[in-house]
Amino acid sequence: MTPLVSGPIFQICWVVEDIAAAEREFTEKWGVRRWLRLPDIAFGPETTTYRGKPAEYTIHVSLGYVGTQQIELIQPVSGQNLYTEFLEKCGVGVHHVAWVPDDYEETLAEAGRRGMPIVQQGCAGMEFAYLDGGALGGYVELMKLTPEIRLMFDSLIDD
Predict the structure, then answer these.
(1) Parallel/antiparallel/unpaired status of strands 36-43 and 118-123
(2) pLDDT tens column, 95-132
(3) Which domains, ranges and CATH numbers included, belong to the chain?
(4) Which end of the chain has fewer surrounding CB within 10 Å, N or C?
C-alpha cells in the first residue's frame, strides 16, 4: 500500500500547560533561537469540529525552528478540544506530527477510504485536520498552507 503522505515531517507539536516555560526550555535545551507567539487564537463552530461536532475553543500557539524543523507549542486556554483531551489523558508531551501534502483534499479523502478518522478539523488562516494515530497513539496533522502562511513560516527559519 502506498503511504498516505510522503516527504519530511513538517512540524512536531507539544501540548503544554505553560507556553512561556516551554519556550524557555526549548530555547535553553534544544536551541530554538526565537519564537513567534500567537496568543488567544479563537476557533469557532462555523469552521471547526472536534470529534465530529462543532467546536469552540481558544489556544495559545508558539512556533520556532531547530534548523529547518518546525516546533509548535500549544497551550489550551478555553473550551474542549483535542489538546485539552490530550492533557487530561496524557499530560504534557508530544501531541502530533504534521505533514503538508501536495493535494490536501485528496489526502483527506484517501485517509477516509483507509478508515483513518478525522478527530479535529478546522480553518484559521490555513486548513488543518488531525487523524487518529490508532494503536501508535498521538495524532497526525495534515495542513493546507496558504502562500501567506508559508511565507510567515519560512521567515522564522534561522539561516
Answers:
(1) unpaired
(2) 999 999 999 999 999 999 999 999 999 998 899 999 99
(3) 11-155 (3.10.180.10)
(4) C
